[in-house]
Write a structure and sequence with these properties.
79% of the residues lie in helices and 0% in strands. By secondary structure, it is mainly α. It has one domain: Na+/H+ antiporter like fold, CATH 1.20.1530. The longest helix is centred in the last third of the chain and has 36 residues.
Length: 399
């Protein structure tokens, strides 16, 4: 059967699964993941390993669009207005999650490359789950504003942390000489060249977009820019996520009107792409391997939760933020979905060809992250509701 048939099946069944998930009070991503699990090698075997490999380009497209959207929301003047407290909270919660997860996984596995990768995946949050709760309960107030800022910005830092951790993990796996200069050189290629690539394409297309006003033309040029950035990033063997993040930030801060039009139009085509993206992530989950990775998953959940909540508390305390931030902000940033799953899939693509240890790393990462995402997507919205409820910010905004 042609691959387009399977894409159609993924979109239709994934959409139905997402709607059912909403009906029972969970985010749509849970439905996409569950449908993927049922269609994947662990159950119906409709989406086998060969088909998932053939659909790999959709992963790249989805990752690129996610990174562009995140970047297009990162306005420098907004960051300045948020002040040092939000920046401190983002830094402490991100590096807190990275540190505790890396230590916990290393103590279990005694493998530094495994610890680095799991630690790098921990800071990524899921803005959609938290934002949906804030809007559903019409929350308004200082904590609500802080939650919007933190969940919208920590994914960018998570991507940068991953770039550095992945570069070091590759050196450890390939047996390269481990030195500070070598790590710095690898990270510089992953980070700085990616930023320059995205910025260069962003400036060129930004000037072009300023002359366009019809939405279909804006959409065509925006998609072309994202695909150009992604294609060149893959050709140069640098991070396609960081490149498109830089592309989005360039639009957001240099071409405000063009950025608004591009952001609005690109969101209209993302749903079917994301459905297939999350469904494929669910299909990668191999149920038979879960019992042997139960302890690893439990350590990841406990250490990530402690790192995010403890880091948010420390960041708020150090920056002398309002007490409501210290008490409750950590409860609202536990969701995990898009970027974490995207980075997990990126691990399978970047490390799968690095011998037996690379394939093993890819396997345990995609299974553990897919499984824990379901848990975090359940407790995340519950935590966000608890936070705004205790802060007294429910029902403060107008319907």
């Amino acid at each position: 059967m042609d691959v387009l048939f399977f894409i159609a099946i993924a979109i239709i069944l994934g959409f139905i699964g997402g709607k059912f998930s909403n009906k029972v009070g969970f985010p749509g991503v849970i439905g996409y993941l569950v449908i993927g699990l049922l269609l994947g090698p662990s159950c119906a075997k409709i989406f086998d390993s060969e088909l998932l490999e053939e659909l790999g380009i959709i992963n790249d497209v989805a990752l690129a669009i996610v990174a562009f959207i995140i970047g297009s929301e990162m306005l420098l003047n907004t960051l300045r207005k948020l002040g040092r407290s939000i920046i401190a909270i983002i830094l402490f919660e991100s590096f807190g999650a990275f540190t505790l997860v890396a230590i916990g996984v290393y103590l279990l596995t005694h493998k530094l490359h495994i610890a680095l990768i799991f630690g790098a995946l921990a800071p990524a949050s899921a803005p959609a789950g938290t934002v949906a709760v804030l809007q559903e309960y019409r929350a308004k107030g200082p904590l609500t504003k802080a939650l919007y800022a933190v969940v919208g910005l920590d994914d960018g830092l998570a991507i940068i942390i991953y770039a550095f951790a992945a570069a070091l993990a590759k050196l450890l796996l390939t047996g390269g000489e481990i030195s500070f200069l070598k790590v710095l050189e690898s990270c510089s290629k992953e980070v700085f060249l990616a930023i320059l690539l995205g910025a260069a394409i962003g400036f060129g297309l930004g000037h072009f977009l300023q002359k366009l006003h019809r939405e279909e033309e804006v959409l065509a040029v925006t998609i072309g820019g994202i695909f150009l950035c992604t294609g060149l990033a893959k050709y140069l063997h640098i991070s396609l996520i960081l490149s498109n993040l830089s592309l989005g930030m360039t639009f957001a801060n240099s071409f405000r009107q063009a950025n608004r039009r591009a952001h609005r139009t690109i969101q209209r085509i993302t749903l079917p792409i994301f459905i297939v993206f999350f469904l494929m992530a669910g299909a990668h989950l191999q149920i038979k391997l879960l019992p042997s990775m139960g302890i690893l998953g439990l350590i990841y959940i406990v250490c990530r939760t402690a790192g995010l909540m403890g880091g948010a508390w420390c960041g708020a305390a150090v920056s002398k933020a309002p007490s409501v931030f210290r008490k409750y902000l950590g409860f609202g940033i536990l969701s995990q979905a898009g970027v974490a799953i995207g980075l997990a899939i990126l691990v399978t693509r970047e490390f799968g060809d690095l011998g037996q240890m690379g394939r093993y790393l890819s396997l345990i990462v995609i299974n553990t992250i897919a499984a824990t995402t379901i848990i975090f997507e359940i407790i995340g919205p519950i935590g966000a509701k608890f936070a705004i409820s205790r802060a007294g910010e429910i029902g403060k905004s107008k319907p």
